Amino acid sequence: MRKQLAVAGIALFPFIVTSAHAQVVIEWRVLGDSGNQPDPTTGFGSVPYEYRIGTYEVTNTQYAMFLNAVAASDPNALYSTSMETQLRGGIIRSGTDGSYTYAVKPNMGNKPVNFVSWYDAARMCNWITNGQGSGDTESGVYTLTSQNSISAITRDLSNPDQVFIPTEDEWYKAAYYQPAAQGGDSDDYWLYATQSNTGPTIATATATGDVANPAQDVANYLAGADWNGVNGNVTTVGSAQSVTFYGALDMNGNVVEWNETAFGTFSRGIRGGSIGSNQLSLAATARFSVNANNNFANNVGFRLAAGAPPQPLILTGSDAGIIADGDIIDYVTLADSASLNVTGGTIRDGLDIGGQRFSVRNTQMGSDATIDISGGILEGTLQITEGDRTTISGGTFEDALGVSSSTCTISGGLYRGGVTISSDAFSIAGGFYEGGVVFRGDAEGVISGFNLIEPERINAQQQSVVRMTGGLSASLSVSDDAEFTYAGGAINGFVNLTGATSTLIIEGVAFYQSGELIDFDGATELRFDTADDFFAFVPADTMGGSDQFIAETIEVTFGPGKDAGSVRAISSTTWGGEIVLRLVEPSGSFDVNVDGIVDFFDLSDLLNALP
Predict the structure, then answer these.
(1) Of 209, 248, 445, 517, which residue is least crowded by CB atoms under 10 Å?
(2) For 233, left (φ over 0), alpha (ψ -120 to 50), or beta?
(3) Cα separation of 199 and 195, whole Å?
């Protein structure tokens, strides 16, 4: 009997792993109901644990990302030439061995990848498990000993980073299971992966390969989806809109999907039916296997599975939470006046601060919430966009950090993805920064010590007011209406000022420019306020063009008793134009006009001649 349509597991769980290459993102559906009974008709479908299944079949775009990361040379034949030569294939290879690159055909990026063997799928699982990028393909969940040979499968369901090919029971449950108490069939299992015991309607296709007649009871089978000159072609994943109880799409039709279950020595299971299948092949009662090294089939693909994500840490009201060494947390929800102290462990996906699940989007912190981080690893962008206080004294931040809480104090930590601060009361006294530091909005505060790794820079933007009294930066940029005071530490490279009202103040430090560009917008103010000796040197051969350095005003302000000879030199050999040097003493000031090309200009004699 047909039951009411229902969808479980609506929440999406994107899986994002950072690397230097383009990232494969898998959208997951979580399957609960651990320990469910098997289908009484077939004996399949019982799974004693919570796990995840991919919402969609793996696409050509995702597989091409995998190839571009690992198959510049392709000793394991991860690429099949049929992907290019056959109209149902979706990927083109260019270049020669050692420098191969891969691209998807027009209109084929969101179609399911085909012409892939079981071993190809296993290697992609290992690669994602090992962090993508340069991650290993030969070990992880699957230990491969040759192109088409495997010696072990090592699953760890407690490790949410592991990605694998679903077992037959995992695949079967995701496709056909729905508890009778939640609208399912009387025995908890449907005959088809459309939440129905009636055979699906045959899909047709648009000119670009979307399903033209989408509905809950539609599947791409019996060669009904004709497009691109092909009688029965693959269609855009999810476009049929037939969804299982847990929210997975296309588990009937399109491509038949590999599962992990072995059939003898050489074969692995496939289920679900495909573009050319008949209706019976889509049913729960249909079970098939093919040789695991088969990579020449236009109707065979796969979807991924993973263990259940760790339970979130949810802190509300006046809760006080702690994450310590050994703790593995997928994400944290922090709201109201709750507090969190991180002394170790790993937060995999970042923080949800204010009640919205955190992934890579901006989040909201409860207005009275506080956060203290002194250690651990934070994987995933952390955006703290409200709140009372943020204090960071340690930890490793693998992705970007953004803070605009009322106060922000950073005294340590390693920041790989860059830091953006908009807090109106910040203090940076330490830390190593590999991705640059940006101050923006109404940010106001002091840098007293840190290490900004070359070639990254300090960026003072918008209306920020920043004072640097210590630390090391490779370069500096001041723009918009920002004001930056350089009163200590070291800036060793490029200095750039842009914007009509941006200001750089050099105060009481040795300001030394050697071999790099110092570049001024014509309306920007450079001011030296100092009671100590300093040395200013502008290398003319890298000045950036005379149009950027005309009618500039450099103002030097002396404190009481200042020795005029301490302003030693401003040197230029190729710049042409006019600079007004305004030398200000408590008793008054005068201008020195320098026209034309100047080989060397020593101010000491002029200053000594002041009345």
Answers:
(1) 517
(2) beta
(3) 10
8 Å CB contact between 153 and 140: no
Tokens read off for 39: 């289908």
Residue 276 confidence (pLDDT): 96
Residue 565 — φ and ψ, nearest 5°? -70, -5
Q: Which of 384, 405, 426 is the last residue of a domain?
A: 405
The reply to whether 355 falls in a domain is yes
Q: How many domains does the chain have?
A: 2
Would 220 be classed as within a structural domain? no
Pairing of strands 305-307, 51-54: antiparallel
Query: DSSP 3-state assignment of 118?
Result: helix
From 326, 334, 338, 331, select the one nearest 311 (Cα to Cα). 331
> 406, 414, 356: which is closest to 386 by C-alpha?
406
Which pLDDT tens digit goes with each residue over 286-308? Answer: 999 999 999 999 999 999 999 98
Q: Residue 151: inside a domain, yes or no?
A: no
CA–CA distance from 211 to each of 203, 256, 495 (Å)?
A: 6, 17, 56
Per-residue pLDDT tens digits for 258-285:
999 999 999 999 999 999 999 999 999 9
Identify the burial level of 4 via C-beta atoms within 10 angstroms of its C-beta, where 0-12 means exposed, 13-18 middle and 19 or more buried.
Answer: exposed
Cα separation, 516 vs 542, in Å, equals 6
Q: Which two tokens stand for residue 339?
A: 């507090």
- One DSSP character per residue, 31-50 reads E--TTPPPPTTTS----SS-
Residue 547 domain flag? yes
Q: What SS3 state is found at 69?
A: helix
Task: Give the bridge partners for 23, in sequence order.
Answer: none
Output the CA torsion 489→492→494→498 (10° steps).
10
CA dist list (Å): 351 to 38, 42, 342, 372, 415: 38, 43, 12, 13, 16
Phi (first) and psi of residue 589, to 5 degrees = -155, 165
Higher pLDDT, 158 or 261: 261
Measure the CA dihedral 69/70/72/75, to 10°: -170
Beta-ladder partners of 407? 389
- Residue showing tokens 């855009």: 236
The enclosing H or E element of 483 equals: strand 483-491
Residue 309 · residue 49 · CB < 8 Å: no
Nearest of 221, 147, 187, 133 to residue 1 by alpha carbon = 187
Q: Are 191 and 172 in contact (CB under 8 A)?
A: no
Q: Quick check: 602 pLDDT over 50?
A: no
pLDDT for res 564: 37
Cα distance between residue 577 and residue 562, in whole Å: 30
Q: Per DSSP, what are the bridge partners of residue 396?
A: 377, 414
Whole-number Å distance between alpha carbons of 394 and 348: 17
Count how many Cα atoms sit within 13 Å of the Cα of residue 538 in the half-sphere of its side chain.
Answer: 24
**Which domain range does residue 394 map to?**
323-405
**Residue where one domain finishes, among candidates 405, 438, 464:** 405
What pTM did the predictor assign?
0.58
